[in-house]
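quick one, two chains, predict together pls
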Amino acid sequence: MHAWYHCENVYPFVPQEVLDRAESVRASLPNKYCDPKIAADLFAECLDEHLLCEELGVNVVSIEHHSGINSLYGASPMILGILARQTRKVRILSLGTLITIRPDPVRVAEEYATADVISRGRLEIGFVKSGDSEMVSGNANPVGYVERFWEAIDLIQKTLTSHEGPFSWEGKHFTHRHVNIWPPPYQRPHPPMWAATGDPETSAELGRRGMINALVLRGPEASKRAFDSYRDARREAGLPAPGTDRFAYAALCYVGETDEEGLRVGSKTLWFLNTSLKQSPQMSKFLPGRMPPEVAAQNYRTVPRPGSQATLRPGQSLIGITAEQAIARGILCAGNPDTVYKQMMDIYEKVGGFGHFIFIGRSGFLDHREAEKGIRLLAKEVLPRLPAATPTPAAEPARAAE
Amino acid sequence: MTNAAAEQLRVHGIELEVLHRGKGRPTLVLHGFDTIDPAAPFLDLLGRYGEIIAPSSPGFGNSPRPKDFDTVYDLVHLYLAALDALPGDKVTLIGFSFGGWLAAEVAAACSHRLDKLILVDPLGIKVSDRETPDILDVFNRSPDEVRRKSWHDPDRFAPDYNAMSDEALVVQARNREALCLYAWHPYMYNAQLPRWLGRIKVPTLLAWGASDGVVTPDYGRAYSRLIPGSRFALIERAGHHPEIEQAEVFVERVAAFLEE
């Protein structure tokens, strides 16, 4: 099993009454509530946690969220650059620069190729579709974002794999007449590609492309649905069945010396769900383009019609969750090493296996010292017991070329 | 997707749901953020003065949206094509809000096909400096603020979603999605349009709700100054939708203008 440490670098130090009063803790909360001196300390701590992972052989994730208390990692490629240089052995996953809100995928490819070269080929590229409020803070049209997502991926892949001089791209969403980045990526044909998604259609496309499918805080049922869709799509396309190395499961996770410690400290990560997901209705349920109008229609009702159900975005259904509920739903793994191992293997069995475990080991008021202790215990006491990832056979060349 | 009861209009191979009222001079009516409610009183009142043809733009209402039809440019050419297809020498063009923007674009391109132009609280231009938005951001501002600024009397006129049928709510969601697709960026205006408004050579009326907080009457006056010879009429006790909040006064103003 490949383990990946994922730290959101949250900013929990805004007075609760300010958060209670704010219609949204993302996109519109004034940045006067973020003290840059405290932010500097947080960056130093979180980057140090990544260096501890380097010592322990745990891979690291560089994430990106914008304009809110849920993360200070807005300029993700910069963090990627730091990790690429300061670590020497572990792999680095960008999960990821928000390509649906970036106007020029070629520039993103350039940043990724640079990080891959600096790290001497340790980069993995993960694509995410962006959170709702990020369409607002990123000034990006939420309608049509899925189509834009795939075109951006296609253009980034083409940019990373073209080495014979400029090519031209005149797509629907992006045009770039003279693409020829320097340096090219270190890894050939290109760094491994991932995407974080839970919707079965996207997972199916990931399957056809052979990309790694990560499910972030979706629980075993939704993850299994996505992974099954991935497997089915490959079978229908005549591609080899995937090993577990194509599947990643992400959860909040804290390992303590005792169950009491694991649960007490691990519960602090629920701040991410209970406090940092608050978004205004126009940035969530009324944001167009995120669900079909036939589904979005019910969100207009303040009093649901009998038998009808307002549909929440996946993240919104997590607000207010308790530690026990979060553990039961596979969102949180917390306890002593044995307990966490059992929780993880329970999820592993339910979803049909995964080769990558992304653990969100610090959030909310869980502090640096606690985070480092949890990382050490996970790395030393849990990871060695987990099953190895199984590989996915390469497609036969004739098949792959089709 | 199509409502069996609604009539259809086919323009350049594109199927549009359309409302018809009245007889006489062809009057093309372009809706705003939302499609026109077939039960809206102003429709019948307006039908006394001509043949009202009120299509739902692609993606709005029950009109399907063809693949890759997704820009204001598409909408403007659609309605230019509609002008070509309508019978008679001249057409009267009325546009509300977002549809007022489309009507202004169409009129700037093709005013020889029009006899009169009526813009009702139209969007489409940028007036203030770069740090002052002219047009209320209906996507990024809170629904409460949008409701408050859209209506003079929101409690009486703003839609009551809880009282609406599922079908009507789907139309509401389709309208919002289509509007966002076409107008997210740049937000509800064409920076080049002011230069070309001077090409509009037909009598033009700008009718404006005095309480409009989506686009203010001052924005309307600036708009009017860019269209040579146009007239600006303020309608009291109405917000962004004077045709709904003051249907009779609105139609009287329009009728007086049409009969001149």
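The interface with chain A takes residues 68, 70, 139-143, 161-162, 164, 166, 169-170, 172-174, 176-177, 179-181, 184-185 of chain B (CB under 8 Å).
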